[in-house]
Each structure stands twice: as C-alpha cells, then as structure tokens.
Design goal:
Layout lengths: L1 E6 L5 H12 L3 E6 L11 E9 L2 E2 L1 H9 L4 E8 L6 H16 L3 E9 L4 H10 L9 H10 L5 H12 L3
Helix pairs in contact: 1-6
Length: 166
C-alpha cells in the first residue's frame, strides 16, 4: 500500500503533526508539502494536513482536497481553539463532508491545538473590543495554551490514530 502524507502549514505546526503521522505509517510512503504535490495518482491512500482558517481548512489544503476523487483519505489539522470544542468538531465534519462529495472515503480524522501566528494575535488585539475575536481573558488564556501545541501528547495521539490503519 502506497501512502502520501501531505500538509499545508503557516507556522510549522501542521508540518510537525505530518512528520508524526509519517513516522507512524508503515509500508511504502512519501511526505511532502502540498505545494509540491503534482496529483494523487499512484497512491492508495492520502493523509492531508491543514490548518484551520475561518472555520475550515486553509485555502491551499482545501483546493488540494477538492482535487481528490475516489480515494481513501485521512485528515489531520491544527487550530487555535480547543480540539474538543464545538468549533473544532464542526471544522472536522465540514472537511470530511467536503471530501465525501467526490466519493472519497474518510478513514481517519485528527485535530489538535497549534500555536497561532503571532501576527494574527496582534491583529486581533489591535481590533480591541470591536471585533468578533476581541481579546478577552478567556481568549488570551486559550491563545497561551495554543502556544504550547502541538506537543508530544498531540504527536502520540496522531500516531495512534494513523498507525492503526495498516
């Protein structure tokens, strides 16, 4: 079975999770940045890493996933929110539903926190109390917690999920 582990990353978080997934997968495999993928032909399964942007996969990963048809696909993502939050679960569902539209079979899903790009946090802080992502004590605490991820526990959880697929 030939596996492609691919990822899109802004801060390096998703790449780190991709490396953990790659390590857990046995058999013939390749890992590469989505920017370097020239199609999905020749792979029995594809594991796609994304970072959450506005409630769904970032544009680059989303475009790649839209190109997949009739494939066995696993997804893994990073986001600033808590992975057990309703927001995170809706993101995962939205991504899996979009993959199924092209007759793909979703064989694994994983999402974990990841550090938020400091430029995005600074933009939200500059918006003050006017924006939907205004800095509140709760939000500041979540941002601080996100900065600690992905961590070894996240990598172990991803390995457990994707390593079982062989």
């Amino acid at each position: 079975m030939k596996t492609l582990v691919t990822y899109s990353t802004l801060t390096g978080n998703t790449k780190k999770v991709a490396e953990a997934v790659f390590e857990a997968v046995s058999g013939e495999k390749e890992i590469m940045d989505i920017k370097n993928v020239n199609g999905a032909e020749g792979y029995d399964r594809i594991f796609v890493g994304y970072w959450v942007d506005k409630g769904e996969a970032n544009e680059e990963a989303k475009k790649f996933m839209e190109s997949l048809k009739d494939k066995k696909v696993g997804t893994f993502g990073t986001l600033g929110a808590y992975p057990d939050s309703e927001h995170a679960q809706k993101c995962v569902e939205k991504i899996s539903d979009a993959l199924r539209v092209n007759n793909n079979t979703v064989i694994a899903e994983f999402i974990c926190q990841g550090a938020i790009d400091p430029r995005i946090i600074e933009t939200m802080r500059k918006m003050g109390s006017n924006g939907p992502h205004a800095p509140t004590p709760e939000r500041e605490a979540r941002w601080a917690e996100a900065a600690k991820h992905p961590n070894e526990a996240d990598f172990a959880a991803a390995k457990e999920i994707f390593g079982k697929l062989d």
